[in-house]
Model the fold of this input.
Amino acid sequence: MSNDKWKMNAFRFLIVAGEASGDAHAASLVRALRKINPDSEIEFFGASGAQMRAEGVDSVVRADELAILGLWEIARALPRFWRAYQKLKRAVTERKPVAAILVDWPDFNLRLARWLHRRKVPVIYYVSPQLWAWRSYRARNMRRDVGLLLSILPFEKDWYAARGMTHVEYVGHPLAGEVRATYDRNEFCRRNDLDTSRPIIALLPGSRQKELVRILPPMLDAATKISRKRSDVQFAVVVAPNRDPVEAEQIILAHEQGAKLRQSLRLVHHETRETLAAADAAAVASGTATLEAALIGTPMVVVYKESFLNWHILGRMITTEHYGLVNLIAGRRLATELIQNDFAGTRLAIELLALIEPERNTSMRAELKVLAQEIGEPGASDRAARAIMEITSR
Done:
């Protein structure tokens, strides 16, 4: 398709993302929009994280300062969210964007979408909120306020169609074809003082501070129990790019076996995919990282733990059979899920020890290879960018 009909002197987009994964997907989309419009001046402003800012998005709101988790955190953060909301509204009024691109972050973005729709600003939603998992009634808000939904999961288009929303386009997952390690196991072990001949288990506790606090300790409990049975096993704790390794270090040192664990445990920062590629198995906090592990082919256990209050209020709203993205896409329990009360050191240790056994390990890697093919072809960001240009150029 020719880009001639898209050529204008300038495009100005509002773009809003609030989570680390949304920031990454939005940054990739910004690059794609500029790539397919090399002769146009394109301006982006809105709520952005570090990766979007690196792509030149003007941060009216720094979304990484709004990252929260749970009802209590939401209550305390409400004034900050209100100020952010007002800043974005003023910016839209002043800058008059050709369209708004909202990326996931439903509690904030769906409210913003309603305001934008009322002011006749075209709303494009990229990365559907997980309404099929909980709070499905919000689909009617999407139908009313969103002009185009760009879906990244294969089952979403049919789910929305069943609820009367037909302006949905499946573009594929942005991670398809993009998830790869930049160096191999040997180099990873050299850089992190690990033994290539011994098993490696990766521990990915999540990208939020509260996730580290709740999820890393049971992972360390599991590592302790595994070490007692298999003294040859090594561990790599992956610190998310947006977190400071000192946070994880403090949690490890506070653990009753922390000092002893440090002998066989390494903290890894900015090497998430390299760690997964080098690992024999992994425990991964439910979220985008489970999909990264699947695309790399690392056998995993999906884990998650909420506060007591959040789980008993929000957890009851979840209607899907599976929690992990890898299982949702597979449509079955491909990876074991240990959620809330099921997530404890003893149970996780049993599952991880089973995963590093050769037969189970080989079998799951084969299943993950098939799943990777189902996720879609590479180029999701380019397809999303073209769809956006189509709707904004009409």
In short: The CA atoms of residues 81 and 167 lie 29 Å apart.
